[in-house]
Amino acid sequence: MGAGATILAPAGNAVTFNNTAIFGCEENDWGGIYMAGSYDPSESLVIEDSYFFNSAYPVHTYEIPHIKIVNSVFVNGRTAIELLSSSGFTVNNNLIGNFSYAGISTNYSNKRHSEITKNKFIDVAYGLLSDSDLHDSLDFLCNEIQFQEYGISSSSTTFKNFGDSITSSGNKFVSLYSETPEHYIDHTGNTPKYYYGPAQSGEFAYVPASGVTLTQAVNNRVCPVVFSSQCPDWMPVGIKEQVKQIAGQLLIYPNPSTGAFNLSYAEGKDEYSLEVYDVLGRLISDKKVNFSTEKTVTFDINSKGLYLVTLKNGNHRITQKVIVE
């Protein structure tokens, strides 16, 4: 998408994005998806199995009664998912990474049943930011939030209890700037109970939350592993290609391709590691190449999608996006 380009959905529509990849070209922000409705039952937004990169606000909705965002990836921006005056939403099984403000922001939403579950937030200022919401029918369970400011920050908001006395909420909070547990939750409104599991009793002894009643549940909630912790370290700068580069030009062609690629590097004189990662940070392939003996090397990617190809030599690297059609 070109810089500033925005997808506008007029009122009265049902919009679906399925198996879609949209990213800002040449590190330029695109305007995201903007959908404004009027609580018409026919209005809906569905995003499934999709990828969105380099937009300050990838998803922004207003008065949309039916919202479903599942199994998708959002990378690089300010706020990934902004839901204003929503009357019901499902946000499950997503990866949200490198957002300078919030992973999910809700404002003035009402009391229809909603879910924010099994999402992984990586390097966000706030995981969930809520203002003047009636979330007494919201399930917030099994999320992992790696945050800079607060995991959950809410004002003038009503929450239902997080978990129950038998089973914990299953959320995992990780402060990126503190070695001790703190700033998990900062809440004003009602006083819900936050149930943590026996396995979390040590960290919650630090009382890392305000505005909620911390209570230990009998059992830990068993949460599925949506995005494996075995993935390599998150590299948001890699997707923007703002890494420390080796001097010279890396050429990968054809791009897009059906899976077979050629790679040449004019400045290459030594042995390098050629690594291919998918958008979840998983290493797909890794091989040694030596530009002293061959000027062009080949590699294959078997599945369709967007990938990051990295050439490494010591502490230096250069990364480029490729697409398999």
Q: Mind explaining what this structure looks like?
A:
- By secondary structure, the chain is mostly beta strands.
- The chain has 2 domains: 6-216, no CATH class; 236-324, Immunoglobulin-like (Sandwich), CATH 2.60.40.
- It is built from 2 helices and 28 strands.
- The chain has helices at 201-204, 236-239; strands at 6-9, 14-18, 21-23, 32-36, 44-48, 51-53, 59-62, 66-70, 73-84, 89-92, 95-107, 114-117, 120-131, 134-135, 138-141, 144-159, 172-175, 185-189, 193-196, 209-210, 213-216, 250-253, 260-265, 271-278, 283-290, 296-300, 305-313, 316-324.
- A hairpin with a 6-residue loop joins β22 and β23 (260-265).
- The longest helix is centred in the middle third of the chain and has 4 residues, at 201-204.
- It is globular and about 70 Å long.
- The model is unreliable at 228-248 (pLDDT under 50).
Summary tags:
single chain; 325 residues; mainly beta; Immunoglobulin-like; 2 domains; 13-stranded parallel β-sheet; 6-stranded parallel β-sheet; 2 helices; 28 strands
